[in-house]
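Hypothesis: this fold can be encoded by more than one sequence.
Test: take the structure tokens below, design a sequence, compare later.
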């Protein structure tokens, strides 16, 4: 095995080890030690197999490190997000790039499923990985139970 450079999200962290996942390939790397990483940290880094057995990995260089904040907002989706959702069918996802960096994802669900859909987004590891790919540092989930709309805003710093 050889070293690998990419963007990784920390999915598990203990004092002695950590697990990171490549956000582009979903490949999982168990680290032989934990260099101070916490769950939801995002690393632009290089990892390499830890000798001599090369069954675990080690972080050999970190170009950037940031955390992703997940915010369960009590705000309703913006008027723009509501407009995007008004053209979507239940179950459809509408994605729109934000001016600059980030994206807005809006989807419609039955009114009775809004809370569980928002909770699923907040608990899904892929939400953090997507934020890392979009270079976001904050993910804000808004909802409107009356309209059956959930909006997920991937925001830069």
């Amino acid at each position: 095995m050889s070293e690998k450079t990419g963007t990784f999200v920390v999915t598990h962290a203990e004092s002695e080890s950590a697990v990171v996942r490549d956000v582009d390939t979903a490949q999982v790397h168990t680290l032989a030690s934990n260099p101070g990483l916490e769950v939801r940290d995002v690393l632009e880094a290089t990892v390499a197999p830890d000798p001599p057995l090369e069954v675990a990995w080690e972080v050999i260089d970190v170009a950037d490190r940031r955390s992703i904040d997940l915010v369960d907002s009590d705000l309703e989706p913006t008027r723009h997000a509501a407009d995007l959702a008004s053209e979507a069918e239940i179950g459809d996802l509408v994605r729109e790039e934000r001016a600059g960096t980030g994206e807005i994802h809006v989807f419609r669900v039955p009114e009775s499923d809004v809370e569980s859909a928002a909770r699923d987004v907040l608990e899904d590891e892929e939400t953090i990985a997507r934020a890392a790919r979009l270079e976001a540092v904050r993910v804000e989930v808004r909802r409107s139970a009356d309209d059956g709309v959930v909006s997920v805003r991937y925001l830069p710093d």
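The beta strands are 4-13, 18-22, 28-31, 41-49, 57-67, 69-72, 93-97, 103-108, 138-144, 149-155. The longest strand covers residues 57-67.
Hypothesis status: open.
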